[in-house]
Here is the input.
Amino acid sequence: MLKVTNLHASVGDKEILRGINLEVKAGEVHAIMGPNGSGKSTLASVLAGNEKFTVTAGEVTFEGRNMLEMSIEDRARMGLFLGFQYPVEIPGVTMANFMKMAVAEQRKFRGEEPLTTAEFLRLMREKSAVVELDSKLTSRAVNEGFSGGEKKKNEIFQMAMLDPKLAILDETDSGLDIDALRIVATGVTKLHTAENATVVITHYQRLLDYIVPDYVHVLYKGRIIHSGDKSLALKLEKEGYDWLINDYKE
Here is the structure.
């Protein structure tokens, strides 16, 4: 589904990604961990098409297509979803209208008929229940006045509505209390199928108690320096990163 080969990316003259290699197949859950400043959020942003970053080398294919030649919009239409660490507010645009436009664009790209009003409202009710999102929030402006937990629930609600092939979740657990973490993470797990894939960027094992990864990767200084199964996250939680970093040679 996603194949990243020797990916290098910079901001201005500063190189942040320095040779990322990663392959994600349908049905898999990958967790990316690492110290602050390692390039985790940069990787997510580059894959989503953030123009702040310049790709200087490497290849990225998504469903067999060259992702680096695709616009942000086409990446989203193809089924790439990015959950932000800090979801933005969009004053003046209600959640219902925002999602109606997004779903319509995606269906048009796929050659599918638009949903009727009744079908769309039924879909919203069904998907908001996945993350226990208060129905009143869908009539308010996107994330405006939402609490931190409500914003993160809203992100996963959007993910549920769009049904992406590949979801990249950038520190979805950031700022969540225990109850909100459980609801959000359980929602992500409910949406996972054998046909889609999830990449979770996190600092903490606690998220991975709910979203159980098939693979865990450690990112350090712009490279993946170690990979393992879910037990690697437990070891990192207990022992930190020093045992890996001290042995790392560039």
Q: What stands out?
A: The two ends are 29 Å apart (CA to CA). The chain has a mean pLDDT of 86.
